[in-house]
From TrEMBL:
The UniProt record lists the keyword Coiled coil: yes
Protein name according to UniProt: Uncharacterized protein
Keyword tags: Coiled coil
Coiled coil: 6-40
């Protein structure tokens, strides 16, 4: 920014303000769409079209599905796999009571976790 003159700075500021207005308009449209969807759902509940409380309900869980259990040790590759314990810890999908220390999966007590213990935790 040191080499820029006042005219260039003003021009850049004008562009940034225009971009900000565009983003604000997109945000407003998204909020309006969310409100419309919520109102439609409330209308369906009021009309009795949605059966709430009947049948199984899928709930998003913090823990990964059994097919994506974390590995007991990180392989150390630069490109992380989907089951990497370091990546799962970062994303928050690591099962409760588990953490990673020195690229190894450990329990809350700090002891290494075996595959057998891992299936019982998840």
């Amino acid at each position: 920014m040191d080499g820029m003159g006042k005219k260039k700075l003003r021009k850049e500021l004008k562009k940034l303000r225009a971009d900000l207005r565009k983003v604000e308009r997109r945000l407003e449209r998204a909020q309006e769409q969310i409100a419309a969807v919520q109102q439609a759902q409330q209308a369906q509940v009021a009309a009795g079209r949605l059966d709430i409380g009947q049948g199984p309900v899928e709930v998003e869980t913090v823990c990964a599905p059994k097919a994506l259990l974390p590995k007991t040790e990180c392989c150390g590759s630069r490109k992380r796999c989907a089951r990497c314990p370091i990546l799962m810890l970062k994303e928050g999908t690591l099962p409760d009571g588990l953490t990673v220390k020195h690229r190894k999966l450990v329990g809350a007590d700090g002891k290494r976790v075996t595959k057998k213990q891992l299936t019982s935790v998840a």
